[in-house]
Amino acid sequence: MILEKNENKFGNWELFVFTYSSTIVLGLIFLPYISDAEIRSAWLKVMIGVVPYILFLYLLFKVIKKFNQRDIFKTFDHLSTNWVYYPIMFYLFVSTLYSIFWGIKSLAIVIQTYLLQNTEQWIVMTVFFIVLWVSALYGITAITRVVVLMFICDIVVVITVVILIFSEEFKWINIPPVFTVDIFTFMKSSLSEMTRYGGIIALLSFLPLLKKDTNIFKSTSSALLLVMVMYTLVSLITLGTFGYEQTLTLLSPLTALIQTTYADVALFERLDLFFLTIWIWALYKAAMIYVWFAADLFQRVIPLNEKKEWIPITVIVGIISVITMITPSFVNLKWEPYNINMVIYTLALPIVLFVYMLLRKKQDFSEN
């Protein structure tokens, strides 16, 4: 069964790992810079960028507590009209596809840059899409088990990053925040940092599957803060080692850092490949989560019986694969439209919906 309807499947630990795994993907490999409007104090922006998403989680928790219903989409459906509900669900679905495409396109450029320079993109992507499609067909239970099982790889990354801060190349003089821009430029530059936490949107479909005694706010906020700590450490280490000007020129500063730090140690001569393998696995996990999330959104607009539940997965993977193959290289695409859409799709719109639901009376939900 692709989209299990049974509730009470997962607990606090699964929720924590699911939140972490759906969030820490693109933000790690491309830290600290991924947009055209960047300033020196990247690590400070990363810390500030998590605050709106903590508000997101707080309002989400309040809505669940008020209506005693963890299915946020169901609550919104009951409190709104069809002409509002369906366009919003369609926008969420299209934006989810956009996010999957962007992540997989980044995967393609990283693989072609660091791993398989002489292999055609369509070959690499075809293999990835086949594996992704088959994996997603197993459903959220299998996906969650894989995510939890491989969380140990994420712990290895955390330990590696902490060790790197003690390298000889690290210079604290590159770290102090520099405020040389106006508030508008700072906020514009912070868009890229906020989007790093956007994967949290997939929680909206995962929450109905939790056990009744699950502490939603504690588990999700803890995972998000761990992601923030990871992002901050990576930003501090890469800026402290390379400096602002050199970091801007690097596709993946963390990969370059690992290559530089362990270049003279035979045992760790290709540790960068090990790190890239972990990152590719992390993106694969996030892609499975997002495909499942998109399929859930599809099902809420066009309900299908159990025998036809393979259709959304196939449609989603098919659309993304075609778009990926026909678009130019990732480096030729602008980040700003993606960043703006991510802020709207994963933060602004959900918060507006949460506030709307909190302003509605509980009896309105009961009557509907």
Question: Can you tell me about this structure?
Answer:
- The chain has about 375 residues and is an all-alpha fold.
- The protein has a domain at about 10-80 and about 140-295 and about 340-365.
- Helix content is about 70%, strand content about 0%.
- It is built from 18 helices and no strands.
- Helix 3 runs antiparallel to helix 12 (about 215-240), helix 7 (about 120-135) packs across helix 15 and helix 14 runs antiparallel to helix 15.
- The longest helix has about 35 residues, at about 80-115.
- It starts with 11 loop residues before the first helix and ends with a helix.
- Residues about 30-35 have low confidence and may be disordered.
DSSP summary: helix tally: 18
Beta-strand residue fraction: under 5%
Number of separate strands = 0
Mean pLDDT: 77
Low-confidence stretches: 32-37
Largest sheet: none
Radius of gyration: 21 Å
The helix-strand sequence is HHHHHHHHHHHHHHHHHH
* Helix/strand class: mainly alpha
Percent helix range: over 70%
Shape: globular
Map the helices and strands:
Blueprint: H1 12-23, H2 26-29, H3 42-49, H4 51-67, H5 72-79, H6 82-114, H7 121-137, H8 140-149, H9 151-164, H10 183-194, H11 203-206, H12 216-242, H13 244-248, H14 253-261, H15 271-301, H16 310-326, H17 335-359, H18 362-367
